[in-house]
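Milestone M4 deliverable, item 7.
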Amino acid sequence: MEFQELLLKRKSIRKFKPDPVPDEYITGLLEAARLAPSGTNIQPWRFVVVKSREMREKLGACTYGLKFVARAPVTIVCCADLNALTAREKRMAELREAGAFLDSGLDDEHFQKYARARARSRDGEAAKAYASLNVAIAIEHIALRAADLGLGSCWVMMFRQGEVKELLHLGENILVVALLPVGFPDQDPPFRPRLPLSELLLKEV
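Output delivered:
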């Protein structure tokens, strides 16, 4: 499938067929997330795959009336591990060893100083926002791979954080970023309206 075709095929799906999603498809979705880029390679994404009917219903009850979360055959709970931020220097070392900075024009010493300064300047809320931003990249990788496999998905952020964490026994270091119901689509909604490029492009200089 051409990439432009894939972008058009990915839609928010809220009605799914009851057919189970094959395990190899689920693995493929998670592999797509694993390959996503992240700032200084911190890779903060963590996932819980919810498949059983009982847990899907309990998870759906943690949302604000979104019944399709329980009806989807699989929901991937997409999380950020805030402890990943503490491994920044290790991840940076891995990048250097992999040759990521070769011919980049980056002065490695100054780049490390900048990264450490930025890390120190992030308070609790800023750290959560930074980790969530990186997880969002991985989630969209999943959504695109799902469309490529003939699956539908829908970002869900209307849930009660504390209830989801309690249900899934997630630690204090884990922040739930989004729920992603996944399954074979039982609808073909029209393409959602998008702003024209003329309203998005601020300027060319």
